[in-house]
Amino acid sequence: MDEIEQFVTYIISVKGESDNTALGYENDLRQFEKHLRKFDLDYVDVSSSDAREYVRTLMEKFKERSMLRKLSALRMFYDFLMRRGDIDFNPFEDISLKRNEKRLPSVLTEHEVAMLLSLNGDDFLSKRDHMLFLFIYSTGARISEALSVNVDDIEWSERRIRIQGKGNKMRFLFLNKSVVSQLKEYIAKRAEYIYPEKEDALFIGKNKARLTFSTAHLIFDNARVKLNLDKNLSPHTLRHSFATHMMDHGADIRFIQELLGHESISTTQIYTHVSSKKLKKVYDDTHPHA
Question: What is the model's pTM?
Fold first, then answer.
């Protein structure tokens, strides 16, 4: 086997990379190998300046996502050669790509949220869909967190639910009085629907078992079609809308950070960009020369 084949075997058997990832890396390295042949270079001959020049040529042809993977493949390959003792340094180690600014999340307007929450039929499954929308928008929960909630997790007197969020971090989801009232009505209808079977999950599917991720996303897809929305509608969209609308109405960013369960304030700061239209309106409405 040549060096690239040995590397691919190594990352699959030792590093545990998937076959698809290994294939992508192999293709990237074969492309690099072809580049070296043009200049009659071997892997061990590549200098830091050679590496930077190669990355510059790639950046003219490929988008950022592809570039990040190619650079990762090259770094790992040269780390592999270093461990074998073939080279003394990794020429790609100090090369970084400037990531583009994070894409702003899709957010519903308050009117669009009201339209979404108006979708409430008479049958149980329609009631469940409505409660799922209301629950996520009212609490800011991730879909994984919402689907993990059991009926017995609800602390009615405190109007809150203790959950285990991302990274096993414990936090509370809070419920306003209106949601508590609607949640009690939903649970009563849920008990009628599920009887005589037993299921702990708050949100259940047609089969009377815990609602699945795929079905939850399908519920949101169907709602988007019904509302004829020309923007993305997903559980994450509703979570983003929760945070944005809270900030629009004056909530402190650190308060929102705690409600969302973000580890770092930098993750929450994206909502300051999302809410910039609100800031502009406040400026236009209040500055004497606006």
Answer: 0.62
